[in-house]
Amino acid sequence: MDDGATIPAVRVTMTDGREAALADLARPLVVYFYPKDDTPGCTREAQDFSALADDFAQAGVTVVGISKDPPQKHAKFAAKHALSVTLATDPDGSVCDAFGVWGEKNLYGRVYMGIERATFLFGADGTLVRQWRKVKVPGHAQAVLAGATGG
Question: In whole angstroms, how far apart are CA 71 and each of 28, 48, 76, 108?
Fold first, then answer.
């Protein structure tokens, strides 16, 4: 996805089970992809975005975390870690495909298909302002907030 691209015409399933088009969510919009609920890196990332939720809200920025985990698992994950960030699921992989985050991964010599940790910032007009690929979790949420607020 190149800078200036518009929000893809894809739908996600929210934790409460309702479907939503990403393009219909309030903007500016941060969409972050993560591999799996309740794993160390993904938990830390969700906690970091949750810790900054008020700052994002004050700046008028909507934040949505997306993985392929089902809504029920998202709900348990959010409750277990007192997360305030919005989580959504991509049940058929169409959202991951649209953003180009589904691909081959390698962990300890084992090759498998999975979600690349990546974040996308869309401006108020729905165009891609910035993207972060192959994200390292420490300090990432703060970097995204700075990017979203011009700080």
Answer: 24, 21, 9, 29
